[in-house]
Amino acid sequence: MTSVSHLDEWPLPAFKLNSKLAIMERSEEAKKLVGDRVFFLELLDEGSRKKAREFLSGNQSAGPLELNFISLADELFLGDVYSKWDSDSNLNIVLVPKDNRLLEITSQLLSLRTRLQETDYDLLLEKERTEDLLEQVRKLSAPCIDLGKKHILIPLFGDLDPRKIEVIRFQILNQVYETGAETVIMDLTAMDQLEQDGVDYLKSLMQTFKVMGIQGIMTGMKPQHAKQLHHLELGLGLYFVSSLQTVLASRKLLL
User: Fold this and answer.
1) Which residues of 227-239 are buried (b: 16+ CB within 10 A; e: fewer)?
2) How far is CA 46 from CA 49, 98, 120, 142, 157, in A?
3) Ordered strands of the 14-17 beta sheet
4) For the chain, which end, N or C, has fewer CB atoms within 10 Å of the first or last residue's CB respectively?
5) By CB neighbour count within 10 A (0-12 exposed, 13-18 middle, 19+ buried), where does 187 fall?
């Protein structure tokens, strides 16, 4: 009568080995997968035997160890080995085969992660290109026009925000210095929204003009902007004129 091993209840391939790594018992799942070979090392391909011998020679529980096994159909498959020595100096082993589907999914995930990283890089490049274009737009939205007679006109377009003033500040101050301008005309006719932070930056710019001995004139203000800008006159010596045409006519300047 054939004896029944307690390992038969295991849902995974399981083995009990003696100190010489001979197989004393094996589960039904183990028989189906690798057959009835006598020694555990015979279940492995040549490249995994040395690694397995070193791993299993200790007397402590360990795992997992990845090894290449030879199936009953003489096909190689990869599996993780978990081992534990019992009180009778026998080594209990559980084999967890690595399913090919799992390997396929892992490969797909790695491929997807690579594509996502490439996509992130492309998005980063696109963001940088967009930022460059926006900076160019900000610069072009406040060109410096030399009117002659040491007057410079700066027509502002779009919204007035701190980023815009910060971008155009150097451009304006550099041209004011190079032309030796004594008067700067800021025309707000085409200006839309005025953010308070943008107004504060504008005040700082006008203060710089004052330190440089340059007169500031603001034209083209809309009624909704007056409350935000009227305080700039205090301490800055600014002039507010209703329209650009009025300034040009009074100073005999032509665009």
Assistant:
1) ebbeebeeeeebe
2) 6, 19, 43, 75, 76
3) 23-26, 14-17, 91-97, 76-85, 62-70
4) N
5) buried
Helical ranges in 89-99 per DSSP H: none
Contact criterion met (CB below 8 Å) for 55 and 83: yes
> In the numeric block, which tokens belong to residue 142?
């406040």
Q: What is the DSSP string of 46-79?
A: HHHHHHHHHHHTSSS-EEEEEEEEE-TTS-EEEE
- Residues 6 or more apart whose CB falls under 8 angstroms from that of 192 comprise 158, 159
Cα–Cα dist 27/7, whole Å: 5
**What DSSP string runs through 188-207?**
EEEEEEE-HHHHHHHHHHHH
Strand 215-219 to 183-194 pairing: parallel
Name the region of 151 (left: φ>0; alpha: ψ -120 to 50; beta: rest).
beta
Q: Which residues pair with 82 in a beta bridge?
A: 94
Give the total residue count for the chain. 255
Residue 121's H or E segment, with its range, is helix 100-140
Looking up tokens 């995974």, which residue turns up? Answer: 12
Structure token pair of residue 119: 């996509």
